[in-house]
């Protein structure tokens, strides 16, 4: 085994403490001041507790009994401080309803190292968090700083509490409040709503028969001219999707993933053979011995953010884990506290695929791959060898067509016609399903088929050939590191059996992100660590809430619509089946290039929705409904591309935003529907991958929503707005008889409780039903506040079981069920793809060339294949811009005064060598310039950044969310310039100059936004 000292030899290594000292030089002063005066400026309670509230409970020293604070209430629900969605323990003031503190839920795997058994009564759960408990203070169930601070959202002075209609031009910041019923009427019926001419309402747009473009009927009906988009998987997305797809009937539903972390999900989809759900894996952090993090920094970012950071910190402290972070930026992921158990490799942005392909080449050349796993051709091999899964490494690929060879090609009997073909040890072609012995891993030759000899290669041979296109030295030079580093890491990575893992996430968002993510994840395949303890876990999964459950069918309902046509993003639908392709081919023309890319294996991607609309290809929208999403801030380069056009009602007729706040995008809406925030809403969510046990997190209103109410007294929310739209338009899926139970009886959907409580019944009755909640559980967990809703909505035998689930903040599988010996209990059941046929047979519609069907190295490039550096040469743009995430701030958390007191802005990190060339010192004002624009910034010169790189933490530089006050009913909100502090990375994102129109720079294969490795320079301001 390579020692840590050998791995570090010749590399630049620096602990986090030294690198970050400049960025936090004032933090101690601000914190000390806050502790001394209290967060509201009041005097502290005493010298020990400072300004803390009285505890929610205590343990009687004599009896050991739990003694509750009669003035406070504990409830278990879900956090929304980031997109991880951890389980929380909330305490609130009984008299005022005010949430006063947030902590972790001991039942929840994202908040506890090993969650307590689910059957534990709430009283014992609370005792387990005290010194009396078995684990006590050693394993406190915690919430992160962001989760604690985000409760300030609930009482923010900039929160939207009324239904708003713009009272001036779009973007003017002037609004008037209107009744909810008027808003619904105007949105549905349209008319001359603003004195600017007629606006088509949703009723007119919902035409399910007339083609949106008669010359291209495959585009679908006019109903597709409504786009419905949302931002997070906060437990409410299924309701939105149901409305868009199956009630209204539009094809154009989408979410923020394509400008957040979709490149990683797409690469995962390729290796896992899943371009439907885009499943992905994460290390089994608790048992991994050696890990490499690329594009993900544990404790800083990468979901599950808090769990991964906590488990990595614990594992490295105990000495179980050594790990390496490969990143242009040194973050909190590495620390002096870990001594020699962590290491930072400063890599050039956008070259992670070269790094991974270099490791792949070394592993294959030195035969350090897991041959036992890879030589399993199918299920018979798995059974014979005891492996936890199999791959298509041995399957033969037709070199000319790019298709995997099948039994049909071989002329085999019908029962084997769909089987794939592998070679046994003697070189005989056999069915992948039947071969129990080791199949041939490497082959480049021909086989005899029913139609004669065909040139073939095994999948692993194709990967080896791609990896060998460059030498190890060439890969290292591309990355800006030494070849010895790649070799040492490859050797260490292959020295731990199944207990090594490689992890990636949002750092893959570059214009070559898809192949980068696929290359990185292929390393896990080569060592066969999927489904093994200490290897890669797909996920424990969730208890089904919104499908066809044991109690209610939440997926189907009478007269539901099946949407038809082409997504606005030109996703999934094969370009070869379009009328455009047929017309051009019939005319004798080349069908390529197309006006914009078609993405054959991407889901609906919002990075292309608005730009495609304004370009009119494939067609244009007439209306958009958004929920909590902010693409003008979140998508690199989009504001420059379309920001001004969004202000013109002639370009987009109707825009309705649903949000508790006015962000950079919703500021350009026609109407704003207020919504519940944080701990006021319903929902059902599941943890991100990396959680090895099954879990469904309950979100429920532990506080009364503060926004306006409907005429019949219901709080205005996302759900009530969509229900009201549906009922006014008489859409299927809303009203009194629309949710079927297991007996076929139909139940109502007239309020959010009708939906979420019945989903809760599915969760409670999945598999073996949970027990019934005791009176003590209900009282201690605050579930009494929703018991009237539970009793009104659910059947008698469901009520106490659903209460049991809400009393624990969801349903969580016991930790004891995580493993089956050395294997994970919840294994990924499908084969892993060394070669992906869908990728290898699809065509880039700009260049007309086929994609490569295995991981490979491409430099940063435009959609037509032009290398980025040819257009933006290094002599003009000597630096590369990259982003990273703060461990405290997100794009929404900047509104928290507590977090701003710690990180008020985002100084831009510059390597000392680059700073010296530019004549810049820490604290200097500089201008960061890219081909997409420029931003003023404060320089932070530090060693914790690779040479040639300028790095910007994401989440700052807002021009809305309170940075600009809006005028509502003649009353002016306060301007808070501190919310505008820092740099908005995405304001200087790029457009693709070779695409024309309004296209932003994106991954040329799957369309995800490119916010990493952008050409840049710095200038003294």
Question: How would you briefly describe this protein structure?
Answer:
Helices cover 25% and strands 16% of the residues. With 1021 residues, the protein is α/β, with parallel strands linked by helices.
Overview of the molecule:
With 1021 residues, the protein is α/β, with parallel strands linked by helices. It is built from 31 helices and 38 strands. The strands form 11 sheets. Strands 9-8-21-22-23-6-7-36-37 form a 9-stranded mixed beta sheet, with helices on one face. Strands 31-35-32-34-33-38 form a 6-stranded mixed β-barrel. A 4-stranded parallel beta sheet has the order 13-12-11-19. Helix 11 packs antiparallel against helix 16, helix 16 crosses helix 17 and helix 24 packs across helix 27. The longest helix has 14 residues. It is globular, with a radius of gyration of 28 Å. 58% of the residues are buried.
Record keyword descriptors for this entry.
six-stranded mixed β-barrel, 31 helices, 25% helix, globular
Label the overall shape: globular
Spans of at least 5 consecutive residues with low confidence: 1-45
Characterize the main sheet.
9 strands, mixed
As a percent range, the share of strand residues is 15-25%
Mean pLDDT: 91
**Cα distance, first to last residue?**
51 Å
Rg estimate, integer Å? 28 Å
Strand order of the largest sheet: 9-8-21-22-23-6-7-36-37
The share of residues in helices is 10-25%
- Computed structural class: alpha/beta
Would you report the number of β strands?
38
Our count of helices gives 31
């Amino acid at each position: 085994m390579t020692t840590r000292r050998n791995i570090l030899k010749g590399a630049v290594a620096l602990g986090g403490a030294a690198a970050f000292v400049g960025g936090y030089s004032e933090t101690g002063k601000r914190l000390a001041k806050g502790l001394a005066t209290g967060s509201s400026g009041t005097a502290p309670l005493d010298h020990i507790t400072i300004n803390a509230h009285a505890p929610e409970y205590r343990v009687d020293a004599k009896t050991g009994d739990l003694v509750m604070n009669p003035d406070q209430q504990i409830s278990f629900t879900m956090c929304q401080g980031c997109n991880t969605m951890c389980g929380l323990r909330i305490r609130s003031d009984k008299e005022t309803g005010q949430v006063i503190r947030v902590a972790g839920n001991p039942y929840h795997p994202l908040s506890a190292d090993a969650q307590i058994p689910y059957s534990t009564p709430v009283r014992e759960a609370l005792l387990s968090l005290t010194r009396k408990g078995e684990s006590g203070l050693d394993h406190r169930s915690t919430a992160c700083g962001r989760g604690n601070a985000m409760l300030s959202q609930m009482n923010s002075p900039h929160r939207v509490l009324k239904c708003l209609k713009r009272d001036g031009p779009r973007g003017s910041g002037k609004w008037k409040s209107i009744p909810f019923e008027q808003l619904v009427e105007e949105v549905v019926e349209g008319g001359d709503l603003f004195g600017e001419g007629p606006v088509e309402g949703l009723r007119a747009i919902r035409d399910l028969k007339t083609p949106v473009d008669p010359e291209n009927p495959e585009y679908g009906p006019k109903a597709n001219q409504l786009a419905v988009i949302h931002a997070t998987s906060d437990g409410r997305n299924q309701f939105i999707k149901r409305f868009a797809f199956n009630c209204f009937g539009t094809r154009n539903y989408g979410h923020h993933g394509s400008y957040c972390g979709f490149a990683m999900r797409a690469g995962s989809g390729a290796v896992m053979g899943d371009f439907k759900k885009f499943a992905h894996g994460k290390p089994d952090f608790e048992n991994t011995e050696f890990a490499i993090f690329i594009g993900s920094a544990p404790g800083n970012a990468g979901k599950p953010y808090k769990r991964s950071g906590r488990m990595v910190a614990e594992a490295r402290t105990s000495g179980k884990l050594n790990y390496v972070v490969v990143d242009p930026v040194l973050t909190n992921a590495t620390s002096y506290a870990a001594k020699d158990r962590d290491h930072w490799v400063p890599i050039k942005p956008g070259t992670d695929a070269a790094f991974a392909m270099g490791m792949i080449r070394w592993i294959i050349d030195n035969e350090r791959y897991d041959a036992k796993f890879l030589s399993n051709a199918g299920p018979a091999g798995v059974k014979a060898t005891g492996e936890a899964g199999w791959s298509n490494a041995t399957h033969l690929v037709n070199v000319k067509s790019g298709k995997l060879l099948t039994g049909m090609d071989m002329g085999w009997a019908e029962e084997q016609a769909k089987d794939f073909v592998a070679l046994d040890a003697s070189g005989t072609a056999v069915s992948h399903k039947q071969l129990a012995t080791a199949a041939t891993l490497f082959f480049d030759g021909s086989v005899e088929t029913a139609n004669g000899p065909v040139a073939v290669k095994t999948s692993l041979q194709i990967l080896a050939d791609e990896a060998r296109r460059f030498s190890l030295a060439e890969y290292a030079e591309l990355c800006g590191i030494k070849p010895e580093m790649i070799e040492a890491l490859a050797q260490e990575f292959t020295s731990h059996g199944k207990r090594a893992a490689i992890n990636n996430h949002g750092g893959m968002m570059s214009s070559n992100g898809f192949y980068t993510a696929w290359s990185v994840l292929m390393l896990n395949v080569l060592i066969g660590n999927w489904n093994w303890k200490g290897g890669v876990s797909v996920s424990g999964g969730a208890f089904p809430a919104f499908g066809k459950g044991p109690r209610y069918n939440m997926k189907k309902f009478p007269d539901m619509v099946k949407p038809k046509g082409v997504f606005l993003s030109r996703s999934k639908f094969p370009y070869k089946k379009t009328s455009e392709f047929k017309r051009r081919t019939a005319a004798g023309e080349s069908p390529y290039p197309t006006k914009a890319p078609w993405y054959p294996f991407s889901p609906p991607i919002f990075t292309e929705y608005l730009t495609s609309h304004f370009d009119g290809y494939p067609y244009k929208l007439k209306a958009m409904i958004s929920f909590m999403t902010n693409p003008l801030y979140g998508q690199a380069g989009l504001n420059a591309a379309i920001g001004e056009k969004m202000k013109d009602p002639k370009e987009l007729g109707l825009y309705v935003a649903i949000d508790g706040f006015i962000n950079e995008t919703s500021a350009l809406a026609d109407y704003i529907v207020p919504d519940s925030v944080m701990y006021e809403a319903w929902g059902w969510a599941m943890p991100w991958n990396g959680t090895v046990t099954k879990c469904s997190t309950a979100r429920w209103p532990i506080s009364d929503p503060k926004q306006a109410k409907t005429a019949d007294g219901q709080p205005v929310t996302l759900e009530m707005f969509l229900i009201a739209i549906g009922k006014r338009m008489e859409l299927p899926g809303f009203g009194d008889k629309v949710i079927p139970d297991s007996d076929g009886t139909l139940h109502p959907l007239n309020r959010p409780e009708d939906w979420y409580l019945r989903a809760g019944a599915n969760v409670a009755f999945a598999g073996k039903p949970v027990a019934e909640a005791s009176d003590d559980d209900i009282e201690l967990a605050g579930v009494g506040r929703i018991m009237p809703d539970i009793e009104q909505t659910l059947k008698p035998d469901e009520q106490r079981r659903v209460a049991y689930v809400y009393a624990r903040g969801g349903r969580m599988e016991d930790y004891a069920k995580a493993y089956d010996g050395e294997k994970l209990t919840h294994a990924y059941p499908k084969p892993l793809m060394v070669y992906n046929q869908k990728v290898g047979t699809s065509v880039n519609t700009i260049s007309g060339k086929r994609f490569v069907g295995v991981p490979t190295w491409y430099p940063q490039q435009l959609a037509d294949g032009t290398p980025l550096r040819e257009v933006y040469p290094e002599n003009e743009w000597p630096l590369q811009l990259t982003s990273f995430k703060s461990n405290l701030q997100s794009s929404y958390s900047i509104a928290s005064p507590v977090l701003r007191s710690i990180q008020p802005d985002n100084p831009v990190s510059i390597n000392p060598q680059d700073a010296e060339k530019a004549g810049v010192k820490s604290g200097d004002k500089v201008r960061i310039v890219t081909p997409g624009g420029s931003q003023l910034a404060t320089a932070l010169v530090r060693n914790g950044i690779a040479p040639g790189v300028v790095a910007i933490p994401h989440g700052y530089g807002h021009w809305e969310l309170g940075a600009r006050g809006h005028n509502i009913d003649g009353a002016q909100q306060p301007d808070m310039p501190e919310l505008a502090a820092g740099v908005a990375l995405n304001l200087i994102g790029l457009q693709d100059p070779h695409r024309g129109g309004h296209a932003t720079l994106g991954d040329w294969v799957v369309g995800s936004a490119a916010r990493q490795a952008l050409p840049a320079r710095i200038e003294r301001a």
